[in-house]
Amino acid sequence: MGFVKTHDISELNVDLIGKQVTLGGWIEDLRKLGKMTFITLRDVSGISQIIVKGELNENLEELNRQSVVSIKGIVQETKARDFNFEVKAEEIDVLAKAIHPLPIDPIGRLESNIDTRLNHRALDMRNQKTASIFKLRHHVLETLRNTLSNKKFIEITTPKIIGSASEGGADLFSLDYFGKTAYLAQSPQLYKEQMTLGLERVYEISNFYRAEKSHTGRHLSEFTSVDIEAAFMDYNDVMDILEALVMEVYKHTADNCKKEQEIIGHTIEIPSSPFERITYSQVIDELKQQGEKVEFGDDLLDSHLRMIGEKHPGFYFLTDWPMKLKPFYIREKDEDPTLSRSFDLQYGYLELSSGGTRLHNTEILKARLKEQGLDPAQFEDHLQTFDWGMPPHSGWGMGLDRLMTTLIGIDNVREVVLYPRDPDRLKP
Questions:
Q1: CA atoms of 125 and 106, how far apart (whole Å)
Q2: How many CA atoms lie within 13 A of 372 on its CB side?
Q3: Lateral strand order in the sheet of 180-184
Q4: For residues 402 and 350, is the Cβ–Cβ distance under 8 A?
Q5: pLDDT, tens digit, for every residue of 180-230?
């Protein structure tokens, strides 16, 4: 193919008037008006108006909407309201023809439901609302990485195929691994703790897997998790880091993604900080005041969190959970061993993150595993690292997809994940 694109559409400017450019993109609109044709050409950076006249205009039969073309022409000023410049076409090549009718309308004139859109996800990316969501997601990831790097965290990548349950929980996908049973990792928990041994502050942004049959707008079988672990920090320190990250994500996207917000039809409001910190005990009291039959030690149900979320609509930390509700690696409070040094970051009723201070004493860890009905022998590889001088450490994991839904004001994680996986969806 001899086609070379010389400019993105967004690069057209005053200095190029009268000069020849070659653009590549897809035809979003096509209007024949007598001896002229107006083409709206779009690429990932923007849209341009193309004017076709003369002999070239008479040979446009094979052109249709959504086909991919290369257009060579001269940049000129325009009278059109929606464009700063237009291009007078000299050559048009069809690089790939689109069928008609398409399974979904990428311009969004005809609304398609989420399932139909997901079934044709690549084409859905031509819908500017969908594209803007994923441009925003890119900005969020960039902000998370930059902020964590500035805080001296080192990015790691841990295995997703593991030999035993990483947290001892259920909800694991198992697979045949050359005749042995292996599992898909549900979190990088044990590996990231081990990495504090030498790297001190680590983070990972990666996909993890949960085999729970949940059919809600916030659960997926494959999800993107943002995880940190930091030596010589307690749970208050890592809560501060989490809050700073969320604030940075909101500030960066609010300031740098104006066009995307406009297309999505949602203005990103920077939350007030510091985030409120409420203890589990306070929440139990609040629920009792609202007539709920809950006791200290009960896990909070979705209905409870919705009640709490109504009273605390934005971001808040829910801290100091009972030890018995937390995983084996969470450390207790010295002043009250029934309470844990742990927290959840909530956005109203939605849990975004869970974390805390970890145990770094092997003997207590072994006792805790037994207490929770787990076999310390299964955690032998992990436990031995604690004999090599494990520093005190704390960390958390946050659901990136859920954070995205708070940012753009929607309540279905499938909107912010390219190819979602849930109990009913394994394709495309």
A1: 8
A2: 19
A3: 161-162, 180-184, 174-177
A4: yes
A5: 999 999 999 999 999 999 999 999 999 999 998 888 888 999 999 999 999
Report strand pairing: 20-33 vs 222-231.
unpaired
Q: Which of 141-145, 292-296, 361-365 has the highest mean pLDDT?
A: 141-145
pLDDT digits (tens, 9 = 90+) for 273-329: 999 999 999 999 999 999 999 999 999 999 999 999 999 999 999 999 999 999 999
Q: Which residues contact 189 (CB under 8 A, 6 or more apart)?
A: 166, 167, 227, 327, 329, 397
Class of domain 9-96: mainly beta
Alpha carbon distance 183, 428 (integer Å) = 23
Both tokens of 411, joined, read 């309540």
- How far is 101 from 110, CA to CA, in rounded Å? 12
The packing angle between helices 128-150 and 400-408, to 10°, is 120
Which DSSP string corresponds to 84-107? Answer: SEEEEEEEEEEEEPPPSS-SS-TT
Strands 174-177, 180-184: pairing kind: antiparallel
Distance CA 425, CA 84 (A): 43
The number of residues making up the chain comes to 428
> Is residue 193 exposed (0-12), middle (13-18) or buried (19+ Cβ within 10 Å)?
buried
**Between 3.30.470.20, 3.30.930.10, 3.30.160.20, 3.10.20.30, what CATH number should domain 123-416 receive?**
3.30.930.10
As given in the structure block, the two tokens for residue 181 are 């049973």
DSSP codes of every residue in 322-390:
BGGGS-TTBPBPSS-TTBBSEEEEEETTEEEEEEEEBP--HHHHHHHHHHTT--GGGGHHHHHHGGGTP
Write b or e for each residue in 344-369: b if 16 or more Cβ atoms lie within 10 A of its Cβ, otherwise e: bbbbbbbbbbbbbbbbbebeebbebb
Q: What is the token pair recorded at 70?
A: 């290369």
Q: Does the fold of domain 123-416 match that of domain 9-96?
A: no
Residue pair 57/33 in contact by the 8 Å Cβ criterion: no
Of the candidates 332, 352, 333, 336, the one whose C-alpha atom is nearest the C-alpha of residue 344 is 352
d(CA 414, CA 323): 33
Instruction: Name the 3-class secondary structure at 120.
Output: coil
Residues 6+ apart with CB under 8 A from 77: 17, 85, 86
Q: Where are the domains of the chain?
A: 9-96, 123-416
What span, in angstroms and rounded, lies between the C-alpha atoms of 298 and 280?
10
What is the separation of C-alpha 177 from the centre of its chain, rounded to a whole number of angstroms?
29
